[in-house]
Amino acid sequence: MEVEPPVAAPSSPLVDEDFVMVEAGEAQGAAKDANPAAGPPPAQVAADEDMVVEIQQEKRPEIKLEDLFDGMDSDDDDFQSSSNPLNVKEPVEEEAYDPSFELLRIYYQRFFPWRYMFQWLNHSPVPTNDFKHREFSLWLHNDAVMRYQSYTTSDLFRKDVLRLMPRRIEIGPVYTADPRDRKTFRNSTAFVPMAKELCFDIDLTDYDDIRTCCDKANICNKCWRFTTMAIKVLDTALREDFGYHHILWVYSGRRGVHAWVCDKQARTLQDHQRKAIASYFEVVSGKAGGKRVNIRRPLHPHLSRSIDLLKEHFQHDVLETQDPWASPEKADALLLQHIPDPDLREALRKKWDASPGRPSSSKWADIDALAQTGAVGAAFDPKDLLDAKQDILLEHAYPRLDIAVSQKLNHLLKSPFVIHPGTGRVCVPIDRDNLDGFDPLNVPTLQGLVREVDAWGGGETTDGGVAGAADGGAGGGDGGGGGASSQEVKHVQDWEKTSLKPYIEYFRSFVTALMKEEREAAVKRERVEDGDVEVKVESLDF
Amino acid sequence: MNRIDIKRRNVVDHRKKQFADPAYKQTQYPHRLNFYSTPPTADITLEQFEQWAIDRLRILAELEACSFRNKTPAETALHMKPLLDKYLPLDASSSGHSQLQAQRQKDHYSHFILRLAFASTEDLRRRFTRVETMLFRLRFQADDSRERAAFVRTLNLDWEPVSEDEKRELSPQLATTIGFGYGKRAQQVMDEEWCKVDWMRVPDLIEGRKVYVKAGKAYVPGREQQSMVLNAFTKRLEQALELTARALPRLDEDDRLTPILNHLSKNFIAPDSSYTGSGMAIESAEISARNIDNLSQHFPMCMNHLHRSLRRDAHLKHFGRLQYTLFLKGIGLNLEEALVFWRSSFNKITDDTFNKEYRYNVRHSYGDVGGDSNRRSGGYSPYSCQKILTEHAPGPGEAHGCPYRHFSLENLTTLLRASGVTDRAVLQGVKEDTESQKFHMACNRVFEHLHKTELKRAKDEGVMTAAQLETIVHPNEYFKRSYLLKNMNKQKQQVDVKMEG
Question: For chain B, percent helix, then strand, then coil, each to nearest 5?
Fold first, then answer.
């Protein structure tokens, strides 16, 4: 095999192995083989055209294969139109999200990180039951949901997705047997969920009573801060309290964020343990309007640490940015109602009625100021006030989780890297070390990616790239150039040419670290087993 | 040496063991408590077999009833004591009771007989584990502390003690979990026996943030040992029941035991019987989509609140829809009417959205779609109070659950007033009930208040027997009783007939 793995890190044996595995299984490798041999490297300007050609080459053998397997399929029309760059580009120029098959097809074919997704779920380069028995559910365009899909290799997965073009892929648990065979088990205990990442879901709609900038499905960078706070608190607790290391935060594409805790121990948690951990993080509960934080004193170490983490954010991101208590009604429902001392409550109300429009941060400061000047009743206890203030802080800043997602082993959750059908944004992972730098409104979108890859010039010379893109668009690229692809272009993946790059690279490093740990654990196990074997051999000798 | 060793090992080869004579030895019971890890092997008579099982069953059924009525642990213990003494006495080793071994044998054997009876289905297994754990907890709490410690030691649970140094280092954090603020009572931390376990072993302590966790290890104070022992008990029992279930088919060979076991397991189903829609519908009532508003006066607060929320928001969240749909199914609303009801109630959405997002769920609740088992059993049963109280506490924006349990006092009072409960004494009573966690009592109190006159008349005229007026533990029962009482005049004839049948 002369072919380089399409991704960097050739030193890693994992990558090599996987590549060989995939290639051996599929005829697709042959097409790639042919590529570098075909002709001299062309000029820079032609780079884009090459790219178009390359897609076609990738696609042709695939369609043939499919035909072999599926018999007569009506895919040919799609293929024809999708290979025509004119069709591809039109919706891009309109700037509107077009959920047509064409864009999705391009995305799944060229951008979706199949290999890392596979490694992430499989925990090993060779397909294991972790992947084979994993449920995927595909949401099709006619709103049908295909549940209990499973695939033996990442390539079959890719192929099936390309065939069905789901607008959404969800990931379920690993079952005791292949989910496709589930109907063949007579008793229900033979087919049960065994393992799944421990998941958390934070949704900004749950913050509607304290967000002032947006509501419902809308978000902006101001209210995104709530998510940032939530991630910080959860991530810290999961690491420090529960000792997990492999926590993947994924933007859900619109208004929320998912966490996937991938440590082996977390994956094998049972429902009651998941419920326990979810309740551990459930501080804000009940209906809006009532007292929503009911916690015991003295504060649990997790809560006192969370308060320390949130203090700064509460002051800036909640009080100053959101100004949640601007109106008297809000101030009453969210703030005054929780002040324990009736006299103090009255004094505050009077003061705020006198100066309408007083900002929340001043109102917050007023509480202590008035309490100190003695506007309190006889039974006033400063400790009660402190407790109340802590409760208020938690109500406004502590993560609000959709607890149902975390509790059940067999709960499905949207996969990372799918396209959110409403916004066209890619559900990208969030780097927790650069949490504050994440901008949900600026993540790659489907249209953007296609545009970026078209604009990519192959090298640093962007002007050439732009020219090439225009060229490729006009030229129609009906494969005239044949296999004239340059070697430099060859091993640059399409996603590397776009703003998706940092996200996939982050995901790759996450997956690599996860696999490394799994492998080390496996080696350890093997050693133990080896020990056993040796003993047996010994006894057989006699 | 090795040669001999191998030969010895061959003796325990399972293929040979199969034909070896069983070497039973009389089981000894050094402790009052039992984890039931070894099955009994001695002979007992068929009468003993049945009688012991029935005695134990009686205890378990009563225990389940206690949890059903939301009795506190102390009340349950009080209630159970005479029953336990009568049917399943178990004395401490120190009591020097002459029947000690016999008592323990009965406890041991009856447990295993019931295992056979209740291993057959998933549902029975789960309930059996639950009540057995309750019984174990009751006994564990009542046990003499020295004997309990001795018993726990024999269990070989892998708890890692926390060293003095570690205690000192973590004392600020540990102090918060035993109820003392930092600094004040560092000594208490040092005095307590702490142990470290994987947090997964003590999910209920994690759930309530009752222990300190660090890097996956929970630091459990000595007094919380109970929860760990109970978890171990439950877990082992669950596993053992799975194994029993697998072995059950072979039991068919003995035609003396199977009828007894079947009979036992049937008895166990009775107290918690699911509420079947058809049997409970009231024939004379017009139960249709457009009549729900009118009928809602007979609904308990939980359903009343759901109905109000639905009318106010023209929407309910998932668990609210589920709870309400099943309730409506229980009062006799058929599927077509249910779909009409939900469609017309969700009047802010389009037909398309309704069909896409809600229709399926309603049909699923009725068992019209879904897996085989769902269709065969006609969908889910209406939720009992027990289920509503314990499962899926409502989150923000959700209207399901039990108002007595999940509402703040102010919200509850507002709701009650809106529903016509204005009597101060009743409201005060409800407040006390909810504070002492007797949510049923609160609900029944409200019921009695709202149906004061009718109840009095019913009693005077002897329309309803005492049994029909016992504590309500199911929302559908609430509706049925309320409806019958309020329509006594119209219905008297029919009611008489119905109640006898």
Answer: 65, 5, 30
Query: Which residue's structure tokens are 């049925």?
Result: B480
- Rg of chain A over CA atoms, in angstroms? 28
Q: Which of B300, B326, B298, B296 is nearest to B310 (CA)?
A: B296
Give the one of A265, A286, A298 whose C-beta lies nearest to B406's C-beta: A286
Distance separating alpha carbons of residues A313 and B288, to the nearest angstrom = 53
What gap in Å lies between CA A381 and CA A378, rounded to an integer?
A: 9
Cα separation, B236 vs B424, in Å, equals 50
Q: Give the DSSP per-residue string, B254-288.
A: -TTHHHHHHHHHHHHHGGG----HHHH--TTS---
Give me the amino acid identity at B328.
L
Token pair, residue A461, equals: 């010379």
B277 — pLDDT class (breaks 50, 70, 90): very low
List, for chain A, all residue ranges whose pLDDT scores fall below the cut of 50.
1-98, 460-489, 533-542
Beta carbons within 8 Å of B334's beta carbon, 6+ residues apart: none
**E strand spans, A75-151:** 134-139, 145-149
* Closest-CA distance of chain B to residue A319, Å: 21
Query: Per-residue confidence at B473, pLDDT binned at 50, 70, 90?
Result: confident
B111 three-class SS: helix
Evaluate the omega torsion of the peptide bond into residue A298 and state whether it is cis, within 30 degrees of 0.
Answer: yes
pLDDT band at B487 (very low <50, low <70, confident <90, very high): confident
What percent of chain A has a predicted confidence (pLDDT) above 90?
43
3-state secondary structure of B333: coil
| DSSP codes, B114-162 | HHHHH-SSHHHHHHHHHHHHHHHHHHHHHS-HHHHHHHHHHT---PEEP
- Which of B125, B180, B200, B372 is the best substitution to test chain A (most A C-beta atoms within 10 A)? B200
Q: Of B172, B151, B152, B174, which is closest to residue B162 (Cα–Cα)? A: B174
Alpha-carbon torsion, ordered A418, A421, A422, A427, to 10 deg? 0
Can you give the pLDDT at residue B58? Answer: 86
CA distance B415 to chain A (A): 13
Who contacts B32 (Cβ-Cβ below 8 Å, separation ≥6)? B90, B91, B92, B93, B104, B139, B143, B147, B151
CB A417 within 8 Å of CB A426: yes
User: What residues contact A506, with CB distance under 8 A and at least 6 apart?
Assistant: A429, A431
The alpha carbon torsion through B427, B431, B433, B439 (nearest 10 deg) reads 90
Distance CA A285, CA A278 (A): 12
B199 touching chain A per CB within 8 A: yes
Q: Which of residues 369-428 of A touch B (CB under 8 A)?
A: 400, 402-403
Going B218 to A249 to B395 to A284, the CA torsion angle's sign is positive
Chain center to CA of A415: 7
Nearest to B212 by CA among A302, A442, A206, A214: A302
Residues of A recognised as catalytic: 135, 201, 203
Tell me the mean pLDDT in the region B94-112: 87
| Distance (Å, whole) CA A508 – CA A116 | 6
Secondary structure class of A145 (helix, strand, coil):
strand
Among B76, B73, B56, smallest CA distance to B65 is for: B76
B44 Cα to chain A: minimum distance (Å): 33
pTM of this prediction exceeds 0.80: no
**What is the three-class DSSP state of A360?**
helix
pLDDT of residue B54: 87
Residue-wise pLDDT for B201-225, tens only, equals: 888 889 889 899 999 999 988 777 7
Q: With beta carbons under 8 A apart, name residues in chain A contacting B203.
A: 272-273, 275-277
